[in-house]
Fold this sequence. Notes:
The complex is a heterotrimer. By secondary structure, chain A is mostly helical.
Amino acid sequence: MRGLRLVARSLLPFLVALPLLVLLQRGTEQAIAIILVNVGVNVILAVSLNVVNGFTGQFSIGHAGFMAVGAYTAAKITSALADQQIAYLAPALSDQIIFAGALAAGMGLAAVAGLVVGIPSLRLRGDYLAIVTLGFNEIIRVVIENSPFLGAATGISGLPLRTDLVWVGMGVVATVVMARRLIGSTHGRALLAIREDEVAAEAMGVDTTGYKVRAFVIAAAFAGLAGALLVHRIQLCTPRTFTFVKSIEVVVMVVLGGMGSVTGSVIAAAVLTVGLELLREVEQYRMVAYSMLLIVLMLTRPTGLFGTREIWEWLPRLPGRGRPEGGAR
Amino acid sequence: MTEFLQHLVNGLSVGTIYALIALGYTMVYGVLKLINFAHGDVYMVGAFVGLYLSHALGVDRAPTLSKAAAVFVGAMVVCGVLGVVIERFAYRPLRSRPRLTSLITAIGVSFLLEYGFQLPGLIDTDPPFPPGPTPRFFPSPFERVSWNVVGISISNYDVVSLAVAVAFMLGLQWVVYRTRFGTAMRAVSFDPQVAGLMGIPVNRIISGTFALGSVLAAAAALLVAGSRPRIDPLMGLMPGLKAFVAAVFGGIGSVPGAMVGGLAMGLAEEYVAGYLASSYRDGIAFAMLILLLLFRPEGLFGRVQAEKV
Amino acid sequence: MSAPVLELRGVAVQFGGLRALAEFDLSMLPGELVGLIGPNGAGKTTAFNAITGVYAPTSGEVLVAGVRVNGQRPHAICRRGVARTFQNIRLFRDLTALDNVRVACHHGHLAGIVATLLRSGSFLEDEARITRRAEEFLEVMGLSHRRDELARGLPYGEQRRLEIARALASGPKVLCLDEPAAGMNVSEKTALMALIRKIRDDFGLAILVIEHDMRLVMGVSERMVVLDHGVTIARGSPESVRRDPKVIEAYLGDAYLAEKQLSVPPAAAGEPGQGTGR
Lengths: 329, 309, 278
C-alpha cells in the first residue's frame, strides 16, 4: 500500500498530464503545434539552466553545449536504428521505445558532459566560470565541425520526426516537477544557501563543490533532453543550432523570467519563443530588437519579471500537501 | 630554420594585434571587473569607420600619407568616443548591480553592434550605413612591397604594423606607469571606493580607460585592414575572443600581462598552424583557455583574489 | 577527567611573509567557556578560520574530539562538530529564518537526490524532522515569531541570534562565536551573556568567544587567551588577564604603562601549562 502511495505521489503530475497532452496533440493544428513544441523545448532549457544560474547562483553561459551532446547522442541512435524494429512489437510502438531510449541516452551522456565540465570548473568563481562554460560550448562546436563521424558542418540529416506535443509536454512536466521538487527539499535549500553565501554554506556543513557539480549535472541532463527533442522535430542535427548565441538566448530567458523563479523561466521562455516567431518575418531586425531588449531589460529590471517568486506561493494550498516547503519564501 | 623564423615574424605580427586588443579588455576588467564583450565589436567599428573616412577622403583614388594618417586618427577618435558612450549608457548605471547583469548587458551591446551593422542600409553614404552583411574592401593607402630577408618574406605592411603596434604599446606603458592618469587608473583597479575617497574622479578615469582601450582597438583594426582588407560586421568575433583569451592568459587586469599574452597567442597560433594543421588555428585559443582555467586561472601576472572571511 | 573536545597544537597560519598566527595552543573540554581577545588584527578570526577549515594551518594540528581535522574542508569539519558565527553576519539573506536554520540541519539519515525527486516517504519524514528541529532552535533563540520572514528583514540583534540558532542547528560539539555582541546595546549584551551561558548549560557545548567588549567577555568566560600580532601573550582567568601588564600594553600601549609605572617582566610570554588540558 505504501508503495502504491509512493507511486501515486511521485507520478501524479505525469499521469494527469499525459491524457491532456494527447488531447492537445490531436486537437491542435500543425502550425501551432510546431510553435508549441519550440516553446516546450525552450522551457526545458530555461528551467534547467535556472537550476544552475538561479538556484545555485553560478554563471553558466554554455548551456547549448550540453544540448548538443544530448542531441547528437540521440540522433546517432535513431539514425543507426532507423530501419530496425524491436521484435514482436508494432512498428509505431517500437519507434517510440527506441526514441525513448535515445532520449534517455542523450540525457545520460549530457549528464556525463556536465560532470566533465563541472568538476574542474566549479572551483572557479563568477566571471571565470562563465568563460569556461562559454569555452566549453565553443569547443564542443569546433569538435563537431571537425568530426566526420558527427557529420561535421553539414550535420546529420534525415532524422525521423518523433517529437510531438506529447513528448515535449512530458519533458516540460518532468523538468518543472524536477525543479519544484528540488527546490523544496534539503538539497534545494543547500543550492540556495550556496547562492546566498557560499562561505557560510560551507561552514554550516554544505558540501558546496559537490552540490554545484550536482546542479550542473542535472541541468546538463535536461539540456540534453531538450536538444534531443529539438533535433527530432526539425529532423536535422547541425552544429549551427548549438552556438553561443543559443546559450545566450537561454540565459536571457532565465534572466527575463527572474533568476530563481521556475514560473518566471516558463513564462519568459514562452513569451520569447512566441515573440521571436512573430518577428521571423523581419529576420534582420529580430536580433537587433533582441539585443536592445537585453540592454533595456538589464537597465530597467534586472531581477526579471518574477524575481525569485513562484506562482505556487499564491495558489491555495492543496489538501494533504502539508507545510509549504522552502525556496526563497 | 627559415620556416621557424617565418613563423616567428608572422606570429609577432599577429601577436601585436592581439596585444593591442587585449589591452582594452584587460584595462576595462582592471577598473570595472567587467568582461567587455563588446570590445571585439568596437574593433570592427574601427575598421568600418576607417572605411567610411577613406572613401570620404578619396584614399582609394588618390592615396597619400597624410590622408592615411587622417583616417587612422579619425577612426581612433570615433572609437574612443564610442567606448565612452557605451560605458556611460550601458555599464555605468549597473555598477552597483551583480556582475552577471553587466555581463549580459555587454553581450547585448555586442549583439547590437554586430547585428546593427548587418542591417540593410538606411543612410546613403559610401558604402551605405549600416553596411550590411556583405564584406567590403578596405582601400590600401600604399603599395604592398615584399622583401626577402634571409629567406623570410616580410612586407612593408608587416613592418609598419609591427612598428606602430610596438609604439602604441610603449606609449601605453608610459601612460599607465608614468602619468597621473595611469596611476589613478591603477588605483581604481585596486579599490574603486577608496580611490574615490582619495579624490580620484572615478567616473572620469573609467571613461578614460574605455576611451584608451577603444582607441587601441581601432588602431589594431586599421593595422590589420592594411594587410587583410576584407572587412565585415562579424570580423570582431574571432580576434576579440582570441585577444580576450590572451588577456586572461597574461592575467586579466594586468597591462604587461595583456601584451605578453597577445604575443604568446600570436606565436602559439602561428606555430601550431604551421607545424600541425591550419584547421586547428581557431581551436588553439579555446584549448589555451581551458588549460589555463584548469591550472592557473589567474594567468601569468594575475593576482589571486582572496575573500576575507 | 574527560577528553578535550577541541585541541589546537602549535597551529600557525602564514600568508607569504605575514605570520598571522604563531604557534597557537588551545585545549577545551566539553562545556567550557573560553574567551579569545586581543587588539584588532591580532589573529583571532584567523584562529577561528584555522579551526573551521577556511585556512589550512601552515603547521600544527587541529583536533576535534580527538580526530585530526586540519586540512579538511570546512563542511567536513562542521560535520565533525564545529560550528561558527561570523564577524560580519553571513546569513542567507533571501531565505526565511526557518530556511536559514534548516540548511544547517544535516544530521542523521538524509534522503538522497533520487528519493527527493520521487518524493518518497523517507523524504517526507526527513523534511518533517528537519523542520521540527529547525523550529526548536528558533524557539530556543526566541525567533519563532520570525519563522517565515526573510533574514534580510530582521533587526540586527535578531540577525545575530539567528546566526547562532543556525550554528546550533548543525549539532556542534564546539561553538565558535566571532564578536557576537558587535553592534548591540547594553541590554542586548546582557541578554546575550545569559543566552551564551544558557546554551552551554542546555547543550553541553564548548564555546569559544571572540569579543571586544571586555565586560561581556570577561563576564562570560571561565578562562581567556590573549593574542597580539599572532602571538599568545597571556592566558588564564579573567582576573589575572585583566591585570597582566603585557595585555595592558597590547591594548593601551607602552605610554600608558609608563604612566602607570608598570612594567612588562622579561622572559618568554605565554608560558605553557596554564589553562591547557585541564
